[in-house]
Write a structure and sequence with these properties.
CATH architecture of the largest domain: Up-down Bundle
CATH topology of the largest domain: de novo design (two linked rop proteins)
Structural class: alpha+beta
Number of strands: 8
Shape: elongated
Number of domains: 2
Strand content: 15-25%
Largest sheet: 5 strands, mixed, barrel
Radius of gyration: 20 Å
Number of helices: 8
CATH class of the largest domain: Mainly Alpha
Order of helices and strands: EEEEEHHHHEEHEHHH
């Protein structure tokens, strides 16, 4: 069967001397694994559309589990993103989230658009940590691990504000319930408001957000603990992302040129 779809390259694998296997994510059909013959050769017409992060229209034939790429037309190459090591490490984590948390043929136009917007904003130079946490929230929602942030996860009482969070239970706790739990984190109310904002915000509408370093660091640790506890995947790209971030000012911003 012949397919013609718009997709984002979320993984590439060298295969043999001149071939590549690419995994693309599409709105309609979810993930698709495609053999791109000769794509590793510089003069190949398929070389440009098989680069990581590329957003393109792919035409491929599929019979069985893997397709064969016939043609591709680039919509957005993300060339600058690929050239910038700092930005590309964050982008690599985002596409790994999609690759490892979404099942085959699980299409989602919403996640597709959120991923595309995230890659565009990282390339433009917006805060990659903020974008990463926003996208993590979208993936947690899709996977059914959404943190409860507006009520007590234990008794269900509505909370205007709460300084207590249980990673293991998956949400905020009221003052009474927090005394019954062994592992409870006390968090800044501004961090909680930021987490709620991450849940509600469409990444495509992201403007300029000024967040203090202590709040960003606390949110980062909370999101990291939550992802590790409830998703429990050894993220290959996150290790590289952490190493690169250590070389930047305040571990958060792009290094000055």
């Amino acid at each position: 069967m012949l397919f013609k779809v718009d997709g984002i390259v979320i993984r590439t694998i060298d295969y043999g001397e001149g071939n590549k296997i690419i995994v693309i994510y599409t709105k309609e059909t979810g993930k698709a694994s495609i053999m791109a013959r000769g794509a590793k050769k510089l003069k190949s017409r398929l070389s440009s559309v098989t680069q990581l992060f590329t957003y393109a229209e792919f035409t491929y034939y599929k019979k069985g589990k893997m397709g064969t790429l016939n043609d591709g037309e680039t919509i957005k190459s993300f060339h600058d993103l690929n050239l910038d090591l700092f930005k590309s490490t964050y982008a690599a984590y985002l596409v790994e989230l999609v690759d490892r948390m979404i099942d085959e043929q699980e299409g989602s136009s919403y996640i597709f658009e959120q991923l595309l917007a995230s890659l565009e904003f990282i390339e433009e130079g917006k805060d990659p940590q903020v974008i990463t946490h926003l996208f993590e929230m979208k993936m947690l929602e899709l996977a059914g691990y959404y943190p409860v942030l507006t009520e007590c996860i234990s008794c269900g009482a509505e909370l205007a504000d709460s300084s207590f969070f249980s990673v293991s239970l998956g949400g905020t706790l009221c003052y009474k319930c927090k005394t019954r739990e062994q592992y409870v984190k006390k968090i800044n109310t501004r961090s909680l408001k930021l987490l709620r904002l991450f849940q509600e915000m469409d990444i495509r509408r992201l403007g300029k957000i000024n967040i203090s370093d202590p709040i960003k660091n606390e949110v980062k640790m909370l999101m990291r603990d939550f992802m590790d506890t409830h998703v429990n995947i050894n993220w290959k790209s996150r290790y590289v992302m952490d190493q690169i971030s250590k070389t930047t000012p305040n571990n958060l911003e792009h290094p000055k040129k």
